[in-house]
Amino acid sequence: MTAQPPRPPASQSPRARGPILAMALALVAALALSACGQRPSETAAGEVTRPIVIGVSLPLTGDFAQPGSEAKRGYEIWRDMVNAKGGVLGRQVELKIVDDASSQDTVVADYTKLITQDKVDLLLGTFSSLLNYPASAVAEKNRMVFVEPAGGAPDMFTRSFTYLFFAQPATAPRQADVFVNWIKSLPADERPTTAAYPSQDDPFAHPVIKSMQEQLEALGVETVYSELYPADTTNFQSVASTLASKKPDLVAQGAVFEDGVGLVRSLKQLGFSPKMLFQTSAPSNSSQYSDGVGVANTEGVFYTVSWNEKATTPLNAEFVAAYRKAYGAAPAEDAADAFAAAQVLQAAVEAVGAIDQDKLRDWLHANTVRTLLGPLSWAANGEPKGSFLLAQWQSGQVEVVGPPELATTKTVVNPKPGWK
Amino acid sequence: MAHLVQAIALGLLIGGVYALMASGLTLIFGVMQIINVAQGAFLVLVAMVTWWLWNRTGIDPIVASLVTTPMMFGLGWLTFRLLISRIRGSSPSMSVLLTFGLALVIEGVLNLTAGNKFKSATPAYFEESFRVASISFPKAQVFGFVAAVGVLGVLYYVLNRTWTGRAIRAATQNPAGAALVGVSAAGTAALAFAIGSATAGVGGSILSVLYPFFPASHYEWISRLLGIVVLGGLGSLPGAVAGAVILGLAETLTATYGSLGWSTLVFYLVIMAVLLVRPQGLFGARLREDAA
Is residue B10 situated within a structural domain? Predict the structure, then answer.
């Protein structure tokens, strides 16, 4: 191979200087002009024509790419529905969605840029507690209302933030209450006597399992196994082997997704089927879950969930239809949660009649919003005051089995049948 | 006792699969001093193609490696000719940047074409086990282990018993000497890169059955594979096997007798301990430039 003389970098070449100068000038001009455009307009007419821009950063790549992409779908379906009905306050809605690559550093940079440089009118939250924790701090510092579709870890609400609103019915530690209540409703001889609690060290999964363990221990259910594992754990056969030797009545796993699929497969491989199986969020991933574990193995698996496809809540049927039309599949819970977060923001803006962050905040603290997840209202720290649904896989479908007033069926599969 | 035997059996089975996945990485490094960060993405790419073939035609994922192995051989060869050959002779860190870029491109393309969802090939045996006395041997892992032994055996044979293999090893050990006796350095390197990439054919097929995956799963795999080859000694095939088996056993034994939370960490503690005593890894040879 013949060596070639190194080419000089473009900026040092005299001929390149002309276009670069022109580019720089154009850029300065563009910046100056756009800054003019963003100054609050005095005339009402200008306000009406300009769309409302909502800034969002989502994990579209990296670890949270899966829920992040679902959240994007939820937001976009909401935007299209709202715009088709004439927008909010008579203005069209525009979403400015950027990718934070599931990184805490990037999400902070993204929201800072959306607020200070892009000067968006409103914000919507990102996905997972991990990312919403730093992102909500940026919003709070800039005094902007931050409605988040996910992020129920207890630490979110110990900071006395006043602009933060969690648009799900309950936080992580309260999620398991509906399952514990169901166990309490059983005759004493049908309750589990022993239980095992493996959980991923995840701010959304572990608090659910920890709170469940405490509540069940108070009911007299003996804990035979309780272990935390990191997110990159992929092999669950050793856990399954240990569980098979301890034979707990109930296995309650703090499962995000792969770990939930991994444990079910491993339990079957090791030949142990508990009488009750509860997993936090893995079973809510509809067909991805049933494809992963095999649809026959889903029978009787419990989980708690913020949303159900069959619920008769405001806009739920329209949302499900729009999602099915656009993506040809049943909507994921994450998409519904994002839709609900947008509904919350919309309700506040329409009630207040203007984009005034402090008024929006005060209105949300004082009122209940009806969303497709059901009615939502908040404590002063942004913590929601409702309760989750207890869902169960039955014959390859998801049914709501608790609380009784919201159940879609009276049948509860208990005990869980052995693996097929 | 049965519990201990079960843990060891599971550890060995998983170790065999890890060894297969790591073999391509160590082979490529051995010949070219290139750390192929895209090896994890190659595995996920194959897993995706395998899943697609299985989903469309019902062809068994492990049998599908008869299709994916030549595909990866071709992709590896093209990657070398079009990309890697351009940075030959520059610092090794360039190869990390280049292959990392390639990994990102593969991830992006998979995101756009296959979508951002977990996939998992579930042939009839995916959650079944062979049972001997009270010990379970998960079928998918057994098949994966057998395939791994087969592929590693072929690799070992090719490297040690054929002229192609001798040329590859000669180019590894003394590039100038090999060139003097008529070994084409570029041709050999392209071949080694292609063979290393082709191992992802079987590795990715097994991955698609054993673990749910999505386009970004490759980060998790490449970090594990790098750990294995560093422990075994970069460039050494027996080293990769030893590193993989140690990882498999460390994971299962720690999860069974210690704590599940420590199961991935213990392996990295082992790496640190080994590197303190043997900086070249278990089977790594010290190069002349290291001694200087």
Answer: yes
Q: Which residue has the higher pLDDT, A33 or A57?
A: A57
State yes or no: ipTM above 0.90. Answer: no
Contact criterion met (CB < 8 Å) for A238 and B259: no
- pLDDT score at B285: 67
Helix (H, G, I), strand (E, B) or coil at B34: coil
Amino acid at B84: I
Enclosing domain of residue B57:
2-217
Candidates A265, A272, A279, A287: best to mutate against B (most CBs of B within 10 A) is: A265
Chain B closest-CA separation from residue A354 CA (Å)? 37
Distance in Å, alpha carbon of B6 to nearest chain A alpha carbon? 8
Name the pTM for this structure: 0.77
In a domain, B239, yes or no: no
Contact residues, A window 31-60, toward B, CB-based 8 Å cutoff: 60
Nearest 5°: phi and psi at A252? Answer: -120, 110
Give the type of residue at B287: L
Interface subset of B 3-32, CB within 8 angstroms of A: 3, 6-7, 10, 14
Element (H, E) at B238: helix B237-257
Q: How far is A237 from chain B (nearest CA, A)?
A: 7
Best CA proximity match to B154, nearest among B205, B186, B99, B198 = B198
B138 touches chain A (CB under 8 A): yes
Q: Are A136 and A125 in contact (CB under 8 A)?
A: yes
- When CB atoms are compared, the residue of A61, A201, A238 closest to B261 is A201
CB contact A12 to B (< 8 Å): no
**pLDDT grade for A21, boundaries at 50, 70 and 90:** low
DSSP B117: S
Domains of chain A: 50-169+311-376 (3.40.50.2300), 174-305+389-406 (3.40.50.2300)
For residue B229, is it within any domain? no
Nearest-by-Cβ selection for B129 from A62, A257, A269: A269
Q: How many domains does chain B have?
A: 1
Residues of chain B where predicted confidence (pLDDT) is lower than 50: 291-292
Q: How many Cβ atoms sit within 10 Å of the Cβ of residue B178?
A: 20
Residue B36 lies in a domain: yes
Does the pLDDT at position A48 exceed 80?
no
Mean predicted confidence (pLDDT) in A63-85: 93
| pLDDT at position B207 | 93
Residue A12 has pLDDT above 50, yes or no: no
As a whole number, mean pLDDT of residues A167-191 equals: 91
Asked if B109 has any chain A CB less than 8 Å from its own CB, the reply is: no
User: Tokens for A398?
Assistant: 């998801």
